[in-house]
Design brief:
mainly alpha
């Protein structure tokens, strides 16, 4: 009992009122490490990396482009050379971009996209035919 009498009234603790020695000091957080970060969002992570700039040489000129621009440019170049999977990927990317934007105004109608795919298939057939003829000549 004598110990309880020696403690000043300000230092006495109670429910919801800890002793002064155990209270948070002014300017100091009760949770100094903070809440741990979550795993993140995959879409945000992809967007972050796609927006990073890289230096490319195009037509003998060095320029900086976003990584996504480089990838799309490469896909268009492959499709232009008759790569059917690249053309299909571009057509599906156009459709997906139109759906994500909330409008159907992708600049291409479904008929246009089908014509692009048919043209790519036709070009692939020509390439295959030319390769077969070259192998027959040997």
């Amino acid at each position: 009992m004598a110990d309880e009498m020696d403690v000043p009234e300000d230092d006495k603790g109670g429910f919801g009122n800890p002793p002064k020695a155990h209270q948070f000091k002014p300017g100091r957080s009760g949770n100094p490490k903070g809440r741990p970060k979550g795993p993140g969002n995959l879409l945000k992570l992809i967007a972050k990396h796609a927006a990073k700039k890289v230096t490319v040489i195009e037509g003998g000129v060095e320029k900086k482009m976003a990584k996504m621009d480089v990838v799309i440019s490469a896909m268009f170049n492959k499709a232009a050379k008759g790569d059917v999977p690249a053309a299909r990927l571009i057509a599906s990317m156009v459709q997906a971009a139109a759906q994500l934007s909330g409008s159907d105004e992708s600049g291409y109608s479904d008929e246009d996209l089908m014509a692009i795919l048919e043209e790519a298939n036709w070009q692939a057939g020509l390439v295959k035919l030319a390769q077969e003829q070259e192998s027959d000549d040997f």
